[in-house]
Specification:
Largest sheet: 6 strands, mixed
Helix content: 10-25%
Strand content: 35-45%
Strand order of the largest sheet: 1-2-3-6-5-4
Structural class: alpha+beta
Number of strands: 25
Distance between the termini: 82 Å
Length: 423
């Protein structure tokens, strides 16, 4: 692939090739048009008036467009983590105006005719032609020409093709109006394709040493059971919809055999995984006790749960399933003074300072008083709008409620321990 110098290299090559034509001894153009012919690559508005009989061919790159054939090659360039895995080429089509300038009758037509004949016969810039011109530039005193051979244009997979490009009267008129220059005899050309590729380092996978265990290839099984370790469901105890600290979680799945066995819990607001060891295990079911050594690391809310089988290079991680860690109301006390009811709730695990906390008493939601420390297991709620008598309570943290319903009964009933008496 070429690099960013490729566009300038194409323009320079066309300019020098046309210069070679205008100075060919067998054509003797300097005699035909009365003077030597200059070939330039300038914007039309920078070319001075030709009233003194100067003969000139000018090559102007007026448009660059993405090549449709190469537009979606080798995408995407980055993986899900944002790491670069490929450098997709930038395929470009170049559009040029070839304009003849002269100060005498029909001299411009002569120059344009010879230039168009040459480009028609050329058709393609061969690799040998490009390398020969690059070799000539490598000894130039011009730093730009000396740098252009580094574009690697001769080594790109596509050759440079040159073809006439038709512009109608309206397009030509708008183009010359935009350049703010007087119109001169002009032919348009399409040059394709220039491939520019970045040189950023990419990631590449190592070769495969063996295909499956013992190099036996792909394992095939005649059923729909997933061949990889897979978690199918998470079951909190007693048909609950969430797990609480101190309870046992049952994990059901397939191909869960191995050693060692661990379970990772990743909170929605934290990238760090909390890991617990599996208590009991079969190939289709694990149990894990939510009784960590560091309970203060656990945050109420939604976790992504995945099983981890093995360690080191042989470690395999299952799919992830969501699980809610609900708060548990350990104790609740109510007092009343000057018409204001103060409820003090002790909960497990601790509530973090940035979490949104409220207590639902009956059908009234009370926002917690500000939490002074980073984490606390004691919360205070105040309200002057609570009726006296027994009330069912729920502690809501980040949208996750403490468990009020006992689903082991038919029909379900409220848990008698989740109640407070308002004075």
């Amino acid at each position: 692939m070429s690099d960013a110098l490729a566009i300038a290299a194409v323009t320079g090559l066309l300019r020098d090739l046309l210069t070679g034509v205008m100075t060919r001894p067998d054509l003797n153009l300097s005699t035909v048009v009365g003077s030597a012919v200059d070939v330039s690559a300038l914007p039309p508005d920078l070319i001075k008036s030709e009233t003194k009989g100067i003969n000139r061919l000018n090559l102007f790159l007026y448009q660059v467009q993405p090549n449709q054939g190469w537009r979606n090659v080798n995408h995407p360039s980055r993986d899900g983590r944002g790491d670069r895995i490929a450098n997709p080429p930038l395929g470009l089509d170049l559009y040029y105006l070839l304009t003849a300038y002269a100060g005498a009758d029909m001299h411009a037509e002569v120059l344009l005719g010879y230039a168009m004949q040459y480009l028609h016969e050329l058709g393609v810039m061969t690799r040998e032609m490009i390398r020969n011109q690059f070799n000539a530039w490598s000894g130039s005193a011009d730093p730009l020409l000396k740098a252009l051979p580094g574009s690697r244009l001769a080594d790109q997979i596509e050759q440079i093709k040159i073809s006439p490009y038709a512009l109608n009267t309206e397009e030509m008129s708008k183009l010359w109006t935009a350049t703010q220059a007087h119109y001169r005899p002009t032919a348009a050309y399409h040059v394709s394709v220039v491939l520019i590729e970045s040189q950023y380092p990419t990631r590449a996978a190592l070769p495969v040493l063996q295909r499956g265990l013992g190099d036996f290839g792909v394992a095939v099984q005649p059923n729909l059971v997933p061949p990889l370790p897979t978690i199918e469901s998470l079951e909190p105890p007693q048909q609950q919809t969430a797990i609480r600290m101190g309870e046992t979680l049952t994990i059901n799945g397939f191909n869960l055999a191995g050693s060692p066995l661990n379970v990772e819990f990743i909170h929605a607001r934290s990238p760090n995984a909390l890991t617990l060891s599996v208590a009991t295990a079969t190939p289709t079911q694990w149990t894990v006790n939510i009784s960590p050594l560091n309970p203060d690391d656990w945050e109420i809310g939604i976790y992504r749960v995945a099983g981890v089988i093995g360690s080191g290079t042989t470690q395999v991680t299952t799919n992830e399933l969501p699980l809610a860690l609900a708060p548990r109301i350990v104790s609740i006390n109510a007092s009343k003074a000057a018409g204001v009811v103060t409820l003090t709730v002790k909960c497990s695990p601790k509530v973090w300072q940035e979490q949104e906390v409220s207590l639902i008493v009956g059908d009234r939601a009370i926002v917690a008083e500000p939490i002074a420390s980073a984490k606390t297991d004691t919360l205070t709620f105040k309200s002057s709008d609570l009726p006296s008598g027994p009330q069912w309570v729920r502690l809501r943290v980040e949208g996750t409620d403490s468990i009020l319903i006992d689903r082991t009964k038919t029909p379900p009933i409220f848990d008698a321990t989740q109640q407070v008496t308002i004075p």
